[in-house]
Design a protein that fits this description.
This protein has about 260 residues and is an alpha/beta fold. It is built from eleven helices and eight strands. The chain has an eight-stranded parallel β-barrel with strand order 1-2-3-4-5-6-7-8, surrounded by six helices. Helix 1 crosses helix 11 and helix 7 crosses helix 8. It binds 1,3-dihydroxyacetonephosphate. The site of 1,3-dihydroxyacetonephosphate has 14 residues, from strand 8.
Length: about 260
C-alpha cells in the first residue's frame, strides 16, 4: 500500500486563538497525551505565541509552526513576517495559502506561489492549503480548482524541494462549519491532488507526498477520514484547541 510510504502528519492550526500563557498551558496539557504518537505532530500558532510554544514543546515530539509568512526577506510590508525571520528563530513549519488568508486578506494563487518559494528557500516545511468553495463544488469544478491552486503554488518548486511540502485539502465549506467532507469526498479530492502532483513530478514523488484533509476534523470523525488511502493526516482548527480532542486525532493517525 502506498500509504505506508508516507508519514502521517497531524497539524493544529490555532488561527487567531491563544495568548502566550494559554499556549504554554495547552501544550503542557497536550505533551503527555501525544508523546507516543506514530505520526508527526505540529502546532501552527500565532506569531506572538512562538517563543512560549517552543519553550513549552522543548524535548517533546511536538513541533511548532506558524500560519503564514511573507515572500520578501525584509522591507516595507507593515504587519508581515518574513521566512528569514522564522528561520532565524528556528520555526520549522509554515502554513501557506489557507482559505482564510485567501478570503479575508487578499491572498491569491500568485502570492501563495511567492510565499512558498521564500519559505522553501529558507528551509521551512510548507503546509500548502488548497480547497474549493461550496459553489464550486456544486458546479462540479472542485477538481479544476484544486488542480489550478496546486499547480500555481508549486510553480518553480523542484522535485527535491517537494519533500518539504505537505498539501492540505481543505474544502472551504467544511471549515469551522461542523460540516465535514465525507471520507469518500476527502479521499477523492486528496487522490486527485496526488494525481496532479504525479503529472508534474512523477508517480514516485507523488506517492511520497503527504496530503492532509482539513475541515471540521474532530475526535469523532478522525478515524474514518484518516483510514482513507489518500488521507495522510489532518490540518485541525477548532479541535486543536482542546488537548483531549487533539490527542484522539493524533492517536487515530498513529494506527
Ligand atoms: P476547523 O477544524 O475548525 O474546521 O478548521 C480547519 C482549518 O481551517 C484548519 O486549517
Amino acid at each position: 500500500m502506498n500509504k505506508a510510504l508516507r508519514k502521517a502528519v497531524i497539524a493544529g492550526n490555532w488561527k487567531m486563538n491563544m495568548t502566550p500563557s494559554q499556549a504554554k498551558a495547552l501544550i503542557e496539557e497536550m505533551k503527555p497525551l501525544v508523546k507516543d504518537a506514530d505520526c508527526d505532530v505540529v502546532l501552527c500558532v500565532p506569531y506572538v505565541d512562538v517563543f512560549a510554544a517552543m519553550e513549552a514543546a522543548e524535548g517533546s515530539n511536538i513541533k511548532i509552526g506558524v500560519e503564514n509568512c511573507h515572500w520578501a526577506e525584509s522591507g516595507a510590508f507593515t504587519g508581515e513576517i518574513s521566512s528569514v525571520m522564522l528561520k532565524e528563530i528556528g520555526v520549522p513549519y509554515v502554513i501557506i495559502g489557507h482559505s482564510e488568508r485567501r478570503q479575508y486578506f487578499g491572498e491569491t494563487d500568485v502570492t501563495v506561489q511567492k510565499r512558498v518559494r521564500a519559505a522553501l528557500d529558507n528551509g521551512l516545511k510548507v503546509i500548502l492549503c488548497v480547497g474549493e468553495y461550496l459553489e464550486q463544488r456544486e458546479q462540479g469544478i472542485t477538481s479544476e480548482v484544486v488542480r489550478m491552486q496546486t499547480k500555481i503554488a508549486l510553480g518553480g518548486v523542484s522535485e527535491a524541494e517537494l519533500e518539504n511540502i505537505i498539501i492540505a485539502y481543505e474544502p472551504v465549506w467544511a471549515i469551522g462549519t461542523g460540516k465535514t467532507a465525507t471520507a469518500e469526498q476527502a479521499n477523492e479530492v486528496n487522490a486527485e491532488i496526488r494525481k496532479c502532483v504525479g503529472e508534474l513530478y512523477g508517480k514516485t514523488a507523488a506517492d511520497k507526498l503527504t496530503v492532509q484533509y482539513g475541515g471540521s476534523m474532530n475526535a469523532k470523525n478522525a478515524d474514518e477520514l484518516l483510514a482513507q488511502e489518500d488521507v495522510d493526516g489532518g490540518l485541525i482548527g477548532g479541535a486543536s484547541l482542546k488537548a483531549a480532542d487533539f490527542s484522539v486525532i493524533v492517536k487515530a493517525a498513529s494506527k
